[in-house]
Amino acid sequence: MNRELEYMFVQCARVWIPDAEDVWKSAELIKDYKNGDASLQLTLEDGTNIEHKLDPKTKNLPHLRNPDILVGENDLTALSYLHEPAVLHNLKVRFIDSKLIYTYCGIVLVAINPYETLPIYGTDIINAYSGQNMGDMDPHIFAVAEEAYKQMARDERNQSIIVSGESGAGKTVSAKYAMRYFATVSGSASEANVEEKVLASNPIMEAIGNAKTTRNDNSSRFGKYIEIGFDNRYRIIGANMRTYLLEKSRVVFQADEERNYHIFYQLCASAKLPEFKNLRLSTANDFLYTRQGRSPVIDGVDDSKELCTTRHAFTLLGINESYQMGLFQVLAAILHLGNVEIKEKDSDSSLIAPNNRHLTAFCELVGVTYKDMSQWLCHRKLKTATETYIKPLSRLQATNARDALSKHIYAKLFSWIVEHVNKALVTSIKQHSFIGVLDIYGFETFEINSFEQFCINYANEKLQQQFNMHVFKLEQEEYMKEQIPWTLIDFYDNQPCINLIEAKMGILDLLDEECKMPKGSDDSWAQKLYNTHLKTCCLFEKPRMSNRAFIIQHFADKVEYQCDGFLEKNKDTVNEEQINVLKASKKFHLLMELFQDEEKATSPTGQAPGTGGRTRLSIKPDKSRETSSKEHKKTVGCQFRNSLQMLMETLNATTPHYVRCIKPNDFKLAFSFDPKRAVQQLRACGVLETIRISAAGFPSRWTYQEFFSRYRVLMKQKDVLPDKKLTCKHVLERLVEDQDKYQFGKTKIFFRAGQVAYLEKLRADKLRAACIRIQKTIRCWLARKKYLRKRSAAITIQRFTRGYQARCLAKFMRLTQAATVIQKYQRMYVEKKRYRKKQAAALAMQTILRAYMARQKYQALLREHKAVIIQKRIRGWLARCWYKRCLEAIVYLQCCIRRMRAKRELKKLKIEARSVEHFKKLNKGMENKIMQLQRKIDEQNKDNRLISEKLVGLESSYAVEGERMRSELSQLRGVEEDARNKAIQVSSLLEELEKLRKELSVTQQEKKTLEEWAQTYRSEMEKMVSELKDQNGSLKKEKDDLNRLIQEQSQQMTEKMTRAIAEETHQLETDLNEERSRYQNLLSEHLRLEEKYDDLKEEMARSSNIKPGHRRTDSTHSSNESEYTYNSEYTEMEEGSRAGDDVTRGMDTSLTLKLQKRVTELEQEKQSLRDELENKEDQFQRARARDDAEFRKARGAELEYESLKRQELESENKKLRHDLAEMRRSLLGNTAAGAGAPGSPAYKVLLDQLNASCEELEVRKEEVLILRSQLVSQKEAMHHKDEKETMTEPSVFAEDVNKLKDADELKQAYVGLKDTNRSPRFTRPPLEVGDLLSRLRSAAPDLHRLNEDGELWLVNQGLKETVRLLEHQLQTQRRTYENETESLRGELQNVKEENNRQQQLLAQNLQLPPEARIEASLQHEITRLTNENLEFMANDPAASQEARVIILRRMVDLMEQLEKQDRTIRKLKKQLKVYSKRIGEMGAGQTEGQTSPGQMVEEPIHPVNIPRREKDFQGMLEYKREDEMKLVKNLILELKPRGVAVNLIPGLPAYILFMCLRHADYLNDDQKVRTLLTSTINSIKKILKKRGDDFETVSFWLANTCRFLHCLKQYSGDEAFMKHNTQRQNEHCLSNFDLAEYRQVISDLAIQIYQQLIKCMENILQPMIVSGMLEHETIQGVSGVKPTGLRKRTSSIADEGTYTLDSILRQLNAFHSIMCQHGTDPELIKQVVKQLFYIIGAVTLNNLLLRKDMCSWSKGMQIRYNVSQLEEWLRDKGLMTCGAKETLEPLIQAAQLLQVKKKTDEDAEAICSMCQALTTAQIVKVLNLYTPVNEFEERVSVAFIRTIQTRLRDRCESPQLLMDTKMIYPVTFPFSPSCVALETIQIPGSLNLAFLTRV
User: Fold this and answer.
1) Phi, psi at 240, each rounded to 5°
2) Among 63, 476, 627, 1120, which lies 20 to 30 A Cα-Cα from 133?
3) DSSP secondary structure string, 74-127?
């Protein structure tokens, strides 16, 4: 011991010394302590030197400080030195520096009130703590709640959470958060939202039981114990509340700066509400009971809003509006009763003035008479054995009686509310276990302590005793578990103090005895206390200066109680007659409920007596009843003692968890720590007692592995043995001589207090010595290296200096000689240059003048010659153009007329060939036969009428379409006429051009005059030219500068636009991902609800009495056919007989919602397109209204001809239908005679005739459609041609002519050139051209005036520009004419080719069957319109919008016609099937081989099934309808991914299902398609529900579902998907059904499977992440293990069974290999890996943010290494581009933040720029949690953290601390075509699919 003292109390050792202000102050030893010294020489932290004298008796040394690495620990028991200053300092450091309000102290959670809202109670924090061990996360109230919840489920034992502390310490908030945790984690067992009701009780109880005090704005003035009940699945089913000792005196009195209960102020703040008018309330200052504290308002609290919250909570708990108004009536009545003024009548009596408005309001509110209430407020009834007296009360007595009545009413109201809250929280479900939350007052001591403080401290004595026993028990269990020799630990036992209070003849007994005495008083009771306990009990004392007080030595402190009021408060009496008056109220039923069973002294909730002031009053003056009442009446103290005893029994039957709330200061300052107040509360709440009990034993405990890892540096190599336990024993025996300082357990080493600090000092000294040695060696090496480098540098400098000096001398000599030579040659060069310059200037001037004169003369001659040539060419060209246009127009008219006549001849020939007479000749001789069969076809006549009506409707629609097309053709003719008119305008424009030519000749003459005159000014012009050149140079320079600026600005704008586009694109992608994520979350929610619905159905089925043999199994359930049906009437008829429950079995709500949304969007889009179409049509009609009339006149004859032809065709059709009807009637007429029996010759002939008639009818119908399509195509061609003619030739000529007719070209040239060559000298405005010409034409022009500003030269240049412009226009017109000619030739050729195509198409269509003919014609029409649209857009983009609208309308009309045709064909098929069935019934003896008429009709659709060879396999599988369930069962339900499926082709089940689907599509069987798809979807859902936790199953069906989806796309027939196919695969496309809606349903199913896969993988990875990424030491020896407290954490040393990083990588490899084996798409695998890496990063970062021990430099290195291993895995798998690495960026930056330097402002700037992926809250949290593992590291200063917060203040980000681990990225399924040919797929026999037939 002496050796350790000498080693620890040395120079620089730090100790704690007592201090009056700070309680404890830190100091440092100046010199070593030696045994026997009487004092210590110390230096305080402020540098003051002091001498600390030791106690001469005890010689106790001051407390040692813990090493810095132990300061700020999560658990106080982890400290090496366990004493009061260490605890206080640790709490202060965590609270002030790290902003951590929770700290463990063994089994106690110490919570310090921050007086500030902290973001540490969100749902994300709850999820982070859920399922975690208590020691694995930072201290938190949620950790305590999770521990209680986990122990309840694990140990099958009820739990209790005891929350205690002073008023204002945060007890209520802590209890509220604990209940919120239970409600969030467990949920409720029913749909009644019990957890919401449990939380809703908080605002009610706070409103009626909480008030503002000087210490707390929301102080609970009662104690409560809430039992939260759970069922056997540990879900909340209900709750029950017990209350203790309501402070009733607050109702009538409040001290300064305090308030009454919140509910009164809430009512006063809401007095203006309409429903509260009858309460007659006003402000709180108007009532005595709410204004005494003179603080009616709490800062930051809106009482009116709080009342809304309270009323909402009442409603949620089932207290209806009428009861709420009743409660508010009672509360308002209490306020009015307090304002009743009682006046003094005389010294012994009092009275109330008549018509007192407050008493009147009170009586009206409670429904009693004013007379009775005023009578008994001022009188009381006295009863004797024989008589009853009415005694008046003095004013003081009456006032006290009034206040007692108010308190009694409020207590009754409080009890009633608690009773009804419990009723709302009660449940019929059997309670399996419960967790109790006790929110009770802590130890209280004030200047004046009364009965309430006595009861509170009595309760705390009982709780402290229970706490001490529990701590002692846990310590004993730990020692026995580790087989440590157990020695009895002495701890404070407060049983004597409890006996003083509650034992026989104790304080409470004497108080009750005095209350029974007739003349008992507080003074006599005090004397009894003195006589009984003053000499017998050392814990009881009498104050020196008072005979009306007593002192009790509690466990926390001495408390002096004043005896005044003890008896009155213990009796809790109230005037019996006042109660009788209230009971007599008949109008107010709630008041009757409050006072019913008044004599029963029990609360309906079973709450603690004392909350309601139990006073038993007998209404009848019956002596026996009165005596009985007095015998059974209990005092408040007795009731409180009994209820406290029940509470202790409940707590002893549960496992307790302790939360001690500490109030850091009395001024409610945020994060302000007052050591005096804190240490008082620590002593009072038992925290220091826990520390003392721990310190008395072995508080520090290490596992052998942790000890070995931490103190390996203290061992020599020879000390290290294979057995870690033996190694630790040897080392400890060598390091610590006193073996009583440690004990070896089974798994741990136990140390006495201070030993860990001693070992840490040895370790630090060893490391320091090693560091000094390393520094010495390094400094020697650096110094020698520096010396050698300096010596070498000196030698080099000398060598180079000497060489430099020699070179300088030689250079000087050479320069001197060279300078002489240079001067000679320079002088010669200057003279020669001057001479040559003069000579060159003279020659240049001569050359320029001669050349200028020659050029002027040459240009004049050249202009005259070119003008003559231009005039000659233009006149010839115009004449030829006119002649060619006339010739072409004449030829075109001839062609049109000849074509029209040829068409008419052709149509006449067709009409003659297909006339009725011709048909009659063909059918000559059939009339007699038709007459014989008329009777047989009467029934068929009815069916034929329907066909006739449909055909009539079709013909009418065709007629309307033809009329519309003719109107469009007339419009085109009008356009053609307009073109002719414009051609006439061209001729007039040509005449005007001739006039302009004449004016041009006049101008040329004037030009010659100007040229002659201009010769005189040539010299001046040359000077002007030189000046202009200079100016032009400067302008060019400015232009270049401007161009450069423009380029820079354009580049900047381009970059800006690029950034803006990138940001917009990113935002759009974000919005798309959010929308996709929202949609997928809805899918997952739908799946969850669907599973919940199925579970409820199964539970209901289990609870019912139906036998299991009669239950319907899932395999027999029908699929959701109603969701996937197609509009087929035949299938609806067949499905009509199905049962309703089978149809609704597979209802898919998500599809319904999606389809409804899609229909809404399509309707909106349709409406917008319709509006746009109508607007375009209106514009088009207004523009072409005039042309339509002319077009109708021109096309009248042709329209009449077309109408005549259509009428003839209609008449032919009517005749054919009539003949057909007659044939059927005759057929039915002869049925009885049997002449037309099936198989007879007559029957066959008639049947052939019937088929021929039907074919003829179809031919007529198709002819109408073909003719119409031909007409439309010709009209469109003509329209296209006219538009092109209109847009080319006239526009060009008009444009050129307009250019000549507009503003004068001379003026343009003049002004343009003037602006270009403007000089600063010439600032006068330019002359007008007319003015200039008038000057030139005048007889004597003023030459000096005329040449102002050089106008003549400018006019000359303008004329030149004019000539050039005219020449350019002529060339442009020539090119335009040539282009027009070429385009007209091309159009003529196109018309010829189009005509040939139309003829070929007509011939081909006539050879096709009817259905194929319709399809071919419509397809051709659509193709033609599309091509014309594209050409039109390419030629004229400006007019493309109008054409697009017209084409869109035509397309819509064609599609509607096609749909009508489809519906008609479908109905005709149905009718033919019915007809065939009837024919079959007529011929009962017919054999199976005969063919029915229905089959003959269907032959084009269903060809004869000719057997094919195996090589002709079409990639289809056929199955019977009854085998569908067998197919689903064998291929989906019973297929094992690990068994048969492992050897299959990837995606084989999907291929098989698609091949079966192809065959159903080939048969055109929509019923089979629908049932197969719905059965497949429901079966996949079923197998995933059954085996959803099996990763291989989920992965297998995700791959197959995606493959099935890709097959539906690949073979859908869409061009976007077909371009990836081979020719053979394109032949396998679906031909009859469009399954786009089913693709969406299957895509939704794939999304659900993907989410289930992610959930399954997350469940597998979740236990590995924290252990592998954070706790395991991947790099051994980097991170040291720090001492831990009672809450042991998981060791970071890899033990057997713990997960490591290799475990995570192996699991990732398993996931990847299984998905690849199942054939999952690579893009989908990338998305899965990205999601997995996000989960790994989010879980790791969240745990890092909630674990202080993980925030160190070494842990940052470990994390970065682990992340690099994950990146290496991505690189090996080729997944670096999937975005998984980016999801780890927050974790990487957090690890970097742990390792970077954190001192200066530059470091802060670097951190802010580095941590872009982390939020401000996360950065600050990491910095606050940063903990040094070794003494060489430094903590982050508070100033540095403030700097970081200041720099990050402008960040716009979410304040959320933790990452959302439940977030799932939206998944997409990119199209991935398969290269597998369907015809090559073989079905293995192991699948048991032999019933499938290859087709």
Assistant:
1) -145, 140
2) 476
3) SBGGG-SS-SHHHHHHHHHIIIIIS---EEEETTEEEEE--SS--S-SSHHHHH
Its pTM stands at 0.60
User: Both tokens of residue 1299?
Assistant: 């250019």
DSSP code of 1663?
H
Contact 738, 755 (CB under 8 A): no
* Cβ-based neighbour number of residue 1360 at 10 Å: 15
Return the HEC string of 1203-1252: HHHHHHHHHHHHHHHHHHHHHHHHHHHCCCCCCCCCCCHHHHHHHHHHHH
Return the structure tokens found at 1107: 């036998």
Mean per-residue pLDDT, 1807-1833: 86
| C-alpha span between 1821 and 1811 (Å, rounded) | 13
1440-1482 helix and 1149-1194 helix, angle to the nearest 10 degrees: 110
Taking alpha carbons only, the member of 707, 340, 345 closest to residue 1680 is: 707
Q: Report, as an integer, the average pLDDT of 1214-1231.
A: 58
CB-based contact 73:90 (threshold 8 Å): yes
Neighbours of 190 (CB within 10 A): 15
- Any idea what DSSP says for residue 1127? S
Residues 481 and 494: their CA atoms lie apart, in Å, by 28
Distance CA 1837, CA 1801 (A): 12
What lies within 8 Å, CB to CB, of 661 at 6+ separation is: 111, 112, 113, 163, 164, 165, 166, 169, 170, 171, 174, 442
Alpha carbon 773 to chain centroid, angstroms = 57
Q: How many CA atoms lie within 13 A of 1141 on its CB side?
A: 4
Integer Cα distance of 137 and 1688 in angstroms: 11
Q: How far apart are CA 609 and CA 411, in angstroms?
A: 10
**Residues of 1839-1861 as b/e, b for ≥16 C-beta within 10 angstroms?**
ebbebbeebbeeeeeeeebbbeb
Helix 1816-1825 and helix 1722-1745: axis angle, to 10°? Answer: 50
The interaxial angle of helices 321-338 and 262-269, nearest 10 deg, is 100
Per-residue model confidence as pLDDT tens digits over 563-607: 988 888 888 888 888 888 888 877 677 877 887 755 443 332 233
Token digits of residue 206: 């706070």
**Pair 1206, 1239: CB distance under 8 Å:** no
Cα 360–366–371 angle (5° rounding)? Answer: 45
Q: Are the CB atoms for 106 and 75 separated by under 8 Å?
A: yes
The model's pLDDT over 367-381, given as tens digits with 9 standing for 90+, comes to 898 888 898 899 888
885-to-986, 1295, 1296 alpha-carbon distances in Å: 12, 19, 19
The SS3 of residue 9 is: coil
Report the amino acid identity of residue 1312.
Answer: G
Sheet holding 63-64, edge to edge: 49-53, 39-44, 23-29, 14-19, 63-64
The CA R_g of the chain, rounded to the nearest whole Å, is 53
pLDDT, tens only, 1423-1457? 665 565 555 555 555 555 565 556 556 666 666 66
Max CA pair span of the chain? 160
The whole-angstrom separation of Cα 59 and Cα 39 is: 9
Distance CA 982, CA 1290 (A): 6
Distance between the two ends of the chain, CA-based, in angstroms? 97
Distances 144 to 109, 136, 174, 229, 435 between C-alpha atoms, Å: 8, 12, 11, 18, 12
Contacting residues for 1253 by C-beta, under 8 A, at least 6 apart: 1216, 1219, 1220, 1223
For the chain, the 3-state helix, strand and coil shares in percent, each to the nearest 5, are 65, 5, 25
What's at 1388, amino acid-wise? Answer: L
Reported as a pLDDT band with limits 50, 70 and 90, residue 1235 is very low
**In DSSP terms, which residues pair with 110 in a beta bridge?**
103, 660
